[in-house]
Amino acid sequence: QVQLVQSGAEVKKPGASVKVSCKASGYTFTSYDINWVRQATGQGLEWMGWMNPNSGNTGYAQKFQGRVTMTRNTSISTAYMELSSLRSEDTAVYYCAREAGTLGIGSWGQGTLVTVSS
Amino acid sequence: SYELTQPPSVSVSPGQTARITCSADALPKQYAYWYQQKPGQAPVLVIYKDSERPSGIPERFSGSSSGTTVTLTISGVQAEDEADYYCQSADSSGTYKVFGGGTKLTVL
Q1: What does each of the 108 residues of chain B score in pLDDT, given as a tens digit?
Q2: Nearest CA to CA, how far is A5 from chain B (Å)?
Q3: In this complex, do A47 and B96 lie within 8 Å of one another by their Cβ atoms?
Q4: Residue A97: burial class (beta carbons within 10 Å; 0-12, 13-18, 19+)
Q5: Cβ B104 vs Cβ B7: under 8 Å
Q6: Chain B residues within 8 angstroms (CB to CB) of chain A
Q7: Which of A27, A80, A99, B105 is found 20 to 30 A from B9 (Cα to Cα)?
Q8: B contacts of A97 (beta carbons < 8 Å)
C-alpha cells in the first residue's frame, strides 16, 4: 500500500532553516507529483508547492517563493522540503502528499510539526 | 491571490443532509476536490474532479458543480462525519493550487 513517512518534529530558532523529509513506498516514486501542505494549529490547510520527482521540476506558491526549496533523492524514494528564514508564523504541521493528477491528492504523510521559537 | 470561499461552519442533525459550498471565479475552468480532516489526523480525499468519489468513500458523500460554486453534499449524516472539510482547486492557469478556508461540520 502507498505510504509516505515523514521525518520527526523539529524545533528551530527564528532565522534558521528546516528540512523535512518524506519517504515514499508502495508505488513508483517517480510516477506521481509530491505536494507540500502546511497547517498552523487551529488553522486551515495551506498549499506550499509541488515537485515532479522524475524531472525535479517544481512549482511554489507565491507566498513561499524565495524561501522554499523542494528536492528529491530518487535512489531512496525520498522527497524533501526546506524552508529558510524561519519566523514564528511558520510554526505548523507540514504534510507531504502524493498527487495522482486529476485524481487529486490521495495519499498523505503523517505530518511533521515544526516549531519556531527563540 | 486566488481564494476559495467556504462557510466557516455547518450544523446538521444525524440523518439530515449537509451541504457545504465553495465559491471562486475559476471553478468553472478547474476541477474541485474535497478533503475531510478529523482532529489530529491527515486530510482524506472524499471527492475528486468535482463529483467523483474515491474507492472506500461512502456513497453518502457526493459533489456537484454549478458555475462558480461547487458543493459537497453528505446525505444521511452520521456522527462520524463530524470533521473539517476543505475544498481545493487551482487558479485559472492551473499553476497554483489553493485550499478553501475550511468548514467545520457539526453533527448535533
Answers
A1: 789 999 999 999 999 999 999 999 888 899 999 999 999 999 999 999 999 999 999 999 999 999 999 999 999 999 999 999 999 999 988 889 999 999 999 999
A2: 12
A3: yes
A4: buried
A5: no
A6: 1, 31, 33, 35, 37, 42-45, 48-49, 54, 84, 86, 88, 95-102
A7: A99
A8: 42-43
Q: Nearest residue of B to residue A60 by CA position?
A: B96
By C-alpha distance, which of B104, B81, B88, B103 is closest to B26? Answer: B88
Task: Look up residue A20 and give its three cell numbers.
Answer: 523535512
Cα distance between residue A17 and residue B79, in whole Å: 41
- Is B96 in contact with A45 (Cβ distance < 8 A)? no
Kindly state the cell numbers that stand for A98.
502524493
